[in-house]
Design brief:
Beta-lactamase; 22 helices; four-stranded mixed β-sheet; five-stranded antiparallel β-sheet; elongated; alpha+beta; Penicillin-binding protein 2a (Domain 2); about 15% strand; 21 strands
Length: about 625
């Protein structure tokens, strides 16, 4: 073997340079390693420690149990029942598509469902579970667990199911829960839980924050394969609050039975002093159990395409011209502005002319001459055309809003609509044109642009009856003191006397709302909302149903000491006096029967002769 001779100066010089270069190289390498170690352990030690903890520590959000919904008597309207669901963890499944195909032989999954789950697994962490099926039957639950070795990553777990009671009678009030929309997700981690459901309609949606509760969490240490080593900390979820409503379920069911005689109708009943909603009925209704079920897509599609739109809560979303029920607003606007005196009489020959335009009264022959009492009692259009002309749209709009029209009343249901009380600014903003005098004439009798909901009409009636600025509510809560309505008492009293005459005096358009002799007195106002010009000169039964007028009636009782107010709308029902008035009386009878303070007899308090029902004339009002 050849051994270099290091004894020569040249060889030693070469060796020394190589050793120096090697030493410098080693020093550089160890310096770089040291700098990197310093950077990892000292400079960025906290950051990498946090990343290491994230790999080692798992935090799982625990969903809270949803609160129950009860009626005013404590009957359960919505509660949670035991249920199970199947989920899959893609990280454990490995062959995700193959596992899903095997799972589909037990619990049906379409090709589109499988593709959707695969795509979702690619977009999110593979350790996050994805829901495969909800509301599993005991048979499916057992079959999935039996085939667990063939379904890696699939597990079954408890998942409470929402159950609703009283079916279609309470569907619109209680509402239902459903999957959360992606755009509605926020930083609340509980909303991102697999299969999380939130309120989508009714009280379930309106009181979502209180019903949902507060999420809990489990902090655990896991190994490299994601298996739990130990539980570090656990915070139990706080269940949602049980919410007691003001609704009387028995009364609601009885009213729904009455409304069932018509294709589309709605009624709202309020406590005059408190604003509590005793009934909020919209027909046709729907069973929220069918909507809330994740497995009944066919039933959901059927409800969405049903011809009479049973998912629409007409009590708070139905927009109708109020017709003659609006005439109390016009009367109060004129009285408050000093444009009319209750004793002043105005002529009515069946026609009202305004700048060459002719506006007819519902009674072709006219009402001869009317003061305020007669005009409201017999619903004279010409009288209110003149009051509208004198008052102007701004005064009418201001009075309407004081009475709760054109104002949003969610009452605990967020899908309520505000209606429409037009004025100069609205017209300019909506159409870019100025307000016309003829539009004021039409608004004065509740036509034209004016739109209201049954809830708003009930609020208007309750405020008229009580003289209080009541706010409707569906939730039993301590109510603050209600402020007086900012209107002159003599004006309110004049309107109340006239509303009593509508039902109880000869010639009143609401004669069919009078009860039996010796019973309580009811005050009200009829309304007929024109839908098309075809109905103007035709008998209602002779024209297509969809072109018939809407029938409206608002009322309160008892007259001497008002406790309840209600508003009823029958879509395409024809005349308010012929259809909505007797229906409302029947509903008020149900209300009074359930009132422990009701009196069987009340003396007549208004002036004028009270005629038997058979002798009364019926107006179109």
């Amino acid at each position: 073997m050849f051994t270099p001779d290091l004894d020569t100066p040249e060889a030693q010089q070469v060796f020394t340079r190589r050793a120096l270069l090697l030493g410098v190289g080693q020093l550089g390498i160890f310096g770089a390693l040291g700098a990197r170690l310093y950077n990892l352990q000292i400079t960025e030690g906290n950051r990498y420690a946090l990343l290491a903890d994230e790999n080692r520590i798992s935090v799982e959000v625990l969903a809270p149990q949803r609160g129950r919904i009860l009626d005013r008597a404590g009957q359960v309207l919505a509660a949670n029942t035991e249920g199970y669901r199947a989920v899959i963890v893609p990280a454990i499944a490995r062959d995700l598509r193959g596992v899903l195909q095997r799972f589909a032989r037990i619990e049906p999954l379409s090709f589109d469902d499988i593709e959707r789950i695969v795509q979702r697994a690619r977009r999110q962490s593979s350790n996050i579970a994805i829901v495969l099926a909800q509301d599993l039957s005991w048979e499916r639950l057992a079959e999935i667990n039996l085939n667990a070795p063939l379904l890696p990553g699939v597990r079954t777990e408890p998942a409470g199911r929402r159950q609703y009671f009283f079916g279609p009678a309470m569907g619109h009030v209680v509402g239902y829960i459903g999957a959360i929309e992606r755009r509605a997700m926020n930083d609340n981690p509980v909303l991102r839980l697999p299969g999380m459901r939130v309120g989508r309609a009714g009280v379930e949606r309106g009181l979502e924050d209180e019903l949902r509760g507060k999420a809990g969490s489990v902090t655990s240490e896991v190994d490299a394969r994601g298996r739990v080593v130990r539980i570090i900390d656990q915070v139990e979820p706080r269940p949602g609050r049980d919410m007691a409503l003001t609704i009387d379920t028995t009364l609601q069911s009885q009213i729904m039975a009455k409304l069932g005689a018509f294709r589309r109708a709605s009624t709202v009943v309020l406590g005059v002093q408190s604003g509590e909603v005793l009934a909020m009925a919209s027909s046709p209704g729907f069973d929220p159990n069918a909507v809330a079920s994740a497995n009944d897509a066919a039933e959901w599609a059927k409800l969405q395409t049903a011809p009479d739109d049973p998912l629409n809560n007409r009590a708070v979303r139905g927009l109708y011209p109020p017709g003659s029920t609006f005439k109390m607003v016009t009367a109060l606007a004129a009285l408050e502005a000093g444009k009319i005196d209750v004793r002043e009489r105005l002529p009515c020959d069946g026609l009202f002319e305004y700048y060459g335009q002719r506006y007819r009264c519902w009674r072709r022959a006219g009402h001869e001459s009317c003061d305020l009492h007669k005009a409201l009692r017999e619903s004279c259009d010409c009288y209110f055309y003149e009051l509208a002309r004198r008052s102007g749209i701004e005064a009418i709009a201001t009075t309407a809003r004081k009475l709760g029209l054109g104002v949003l009343h969610n009452a605990g249901i967020t899908e309520a609509k505000p209606g429409l009380i037009p004025d100069h600014d609205w017209k300019r903003g909506r159409f870019g044109r100025g307000w016309l005098g003829g539009e004021t004439i039409l608004a004065g009798i509740g036509q034209g642009y004016v739109l209201t909901t049954p809830l708003q009409l009930a609020v208007m009636t309750a405020r008229l009856a009580s003289g209080l600025d009541i706010t409707p509510t569906l939730v039993q809560r301590p109510s603050p003191m209600t402020a007086p309505l900012q209107m002159a008492l003599p004006a309110l009293q004049a309107v109340r006397r006239a509303m009593t005459a509508v039902v109880n005096e000869d010639g009143g358009t609401g004669a069919r709302a009078q009860g039996e002799e010796g019973g309580y007195l009811l005050a009200g106002k009829t309304g007929t909302s024109q839908v098309s010009t075809l109905s103007r000169d035709s008998v209602q039964v002779d024209i297509p149903w969809v072109r018939r007028d809407h029938a409206l009636f608002v009322c309160y009782a008892p007259v001497a000491a008002p406790r309840y107010a209600l508003a009823t709308v029958v879509e395409h029902g024809g005349g308010g006096g012929a259809v909505a008035a007797p229906l409302s009386r029947a509903i008020m009878d149900l209300v009074m029967e359930r009132d422990p303070s009701a009196r069987p007899v009340e003396p007549v308090v208004q002036s004028g002769a009270v005629a038997p029902v058979a002798a009364r004339r019926r107006g179109d009002g």
